[in-house]
Amino acid sequence: MKYEIINKNNRFYFLMDEKPCLLLGGEVHNSAASTALSMEKNIWPFVNNIGLNTLLVPVYWENIESIPGIFNFDLIEAQLQKAAENKIKLVFLWFGLWKNGLSTYVPPWIKTDTANYFRVVNQKQEQLNCISPFCEKAIEADCRALSSLCQFISQHPLKDQVCVMQIQNEVGCLETARDYSRKAQQIYGSTLPERIRELYPQANSWQELSDETFMAYAFSHALEKMALEAKKWLDIPLFTNAWLHKEGKSAGDYPSGGPTKNVLNVWEKNAPSLTAFAPDIYEENFREIIQDYQMIDQPLFIPETRKDLRYLSNCFYAFGKGALLYSPFGIEDLRKSTEAIIDEDQAFLKELGLDQAAFDPTGSLPYFTKCYQIIKELTPFLTDETIKIHSFKKEKDMTYQYQDGNYRFLIKYLSKDKKEQLNTAGLFFQLENDYFFAGCNFALFHDAVDEELCSEILNFEEGYFEGKKWTTERVLNGDERYTPYIGNMPKIIKFSLYTYPKKEQEVVHEYLADERNL
């Protein structure tokens, strides 16, 4: 099976054997894939019934190469077998040299050999828990391990279960804006590389650029090498993800040098073998973040996002904006108690500055399943280059306005920012004279563009799609037709409009012969 991403008319499409599709994903917790038993007990019995077609699963360097040069792929074998049994595609996440700005997944023989595999050093000359991206030996070791993994997958009969791979996870260095190790300092004092001069023609030295730019160059250079190794064996899209820059925070508060919006140009220039730089979105400014990551000529992947009830509806906005992958993090939590989850994730929540509600899945499961069911039904339209998709989402505003040739629409947002309610979000498109809206918690008002005309609903239905065939479940009229709206449970509605003159028209009557003789 061939997996590829193409760009047609500034719109990206993910193709499986030349057929466009969307990756309806869920990412398991960091340690969920550490044993086959853990996956068998906690993941596989659950994920097959909630609408996923793609599972994001970590692969740990320390697990596959605990002894230098000796590889154990038993766990990878188990993941491939179970994915095939459950008819789910895999996105393997390579937890190698860097994960969340740290180097906690490297094998013990690297952790303990700080002479050969030196670490990032802060301004106080303290070594940090992050292997330096200037350490060539460490990068070469990671490349060998990743290459061996990709070779194993490429030669496996179930290789087609792996459709995408993520290289590292939220790279960068924490607790310092840049690396002050001896090697880093040597490079910091050297001539600017040609690629950086092309981006910043006015600069003559690293000192004239930000520390974050310097680290972005180093990390992107390392990941480009890794991507090239992976591509020797696997002809699939490769990406890396980003712990986002947050307003009011400095580089080092978040991983300095990762593919954040302020250094995306460096990553795009210096790591061309990566198909995408993907934002992990846990913040409230969802629309702005998507816009930031669509400024560059790359497809939109969202490999991590929230799974709380209020946030679930963001998938409508994301896919409406052209996302190819959407994946709430810790997908298995949808079946757990809230208290257990909050206890497990306190440190993570604190680090990101998020409210506890971000990891509260209370009541989410049926809504999550419904959201993905609808996106699956709409996939033939979302991936049709001839159809214009529009999407909307409530943030600080309360309405969305749209106008076509004949009608104006005002979409009023109905959600109240309560944790037990989905936030207003949706998408819509037009097929001939019919409008299709999907999403939740909005009301729809319309009028004619021509001020001499009134607009009214001609037909209003609820239903679902199979392929591109519409099936009507209910035809709405009376009180249920005055104002089209969708409540808290997502659904698809279909309606058409018509116009009539506001003022009565004069009509010349043709009387019948017998009427004239009365």
From TrEMBL:
Sequence ranges assigned to domain DUF5597 in this UniProt record: 368-481
InterPro entries: DUF5597 (IPR040719), GH (IPR017853)
Name of the protein described by the UniProt record: DUF5597 domain-containing protein
Species for this entry: Enterococcus faecium (Streptococcus faecium)
